[in-house]
Amino acid sequence: MNTIVFLTGAFVSSHCWDPWKGFFEQRGYRCLAPPWPHKDAPALVLRSRQPDAAIASIRLADLVNYFTDFITQLDEKPILIGHSLGGLLVQLLLQKDLAVAGVAIHSVPPAGVMSFKWSFLRAAWAPLGFFTPASRSFLMSFPQWQYAFANGMPLAEQKAGYEKFAIPESKRALRDGLSHVAKVDYKRPHPPLLFVAGTADHTMPASLNRSNFKRYAKSQSVTEFKLSEGRNHFVLGQPTWREDADFIAQWLDRHV
């Protein structure tokens, strides 16, 4: 039985993977979605703790080490599927030879891959909070959620997604995405890797995902790119999530 480890991105609860876990379990996979350190509580509880010093202390290196330890305790190398910052973790863990394949969904890019699109800069500025203390965790307001995650969705769906999944985040972990900790060796051979991007994503524009993908051109490993119409950064919870999961399942059938 192949194991899938789902890697959650920033700002959201690991329960965003619950429908995906059910989808892939029906296809015979063992599915795990471990929460980040200090985030093993319902979203409402985590929001009630804002500001949360424990969450604020999380660093990107902590996450790499945490998931490395989690994966190495499994009885087989898993498939890694990550969203947003979880997509960056997929890339970082693949280059440590910890998985048989990886899928990066609307991924945060490694250090050195940037976008100057206004939507990206607007969505990223507040969470990075360069002129605010890193010791204070960041909680996205509902208007910020509407722009950065749920743009284009009906108001009721935007509200439901925020109430169910939005949680405080570490500015330190986000800022570390610009540091050497987030460095990827694009020339290093790697297991099959799929990038999934969406045309409506304000936070991680499709062009940024494509630039990330193109850096692997000389790796001589299987690296593929999929662009989906109308997907925003809340892609895991959009009504079209099952179409995306089905595409990924078919891709895994071909490469694992």
Give your account of this protein's structure.
It is a single chain. With 256 residues, this protein is α/β, with parallel strands linked by helices. The chain is 39% helix and 12% strand. The termini are close together. The protein contains eleven helices and six strands. The mean pLDDT is 96. It is globular and about 40 Å long. The chain has one domain (3-255): Alpha/Beta hydrolase fold, catalytic domain (Rossmann fold, 3-Layer(aba) Sandwich). A six-stranded parallel beta sheet has the order 2-1-3-4-5-6, with helices on both faces. The chain has helices at 18-25, 43-48, 53-56, 60-72, 85-94, 118-128, 142-148, 155-165, 171-176, 206-214, 241-255; strands at residues 3-7, 30-32, 79-83, 101-105, 193-198, 223-228.
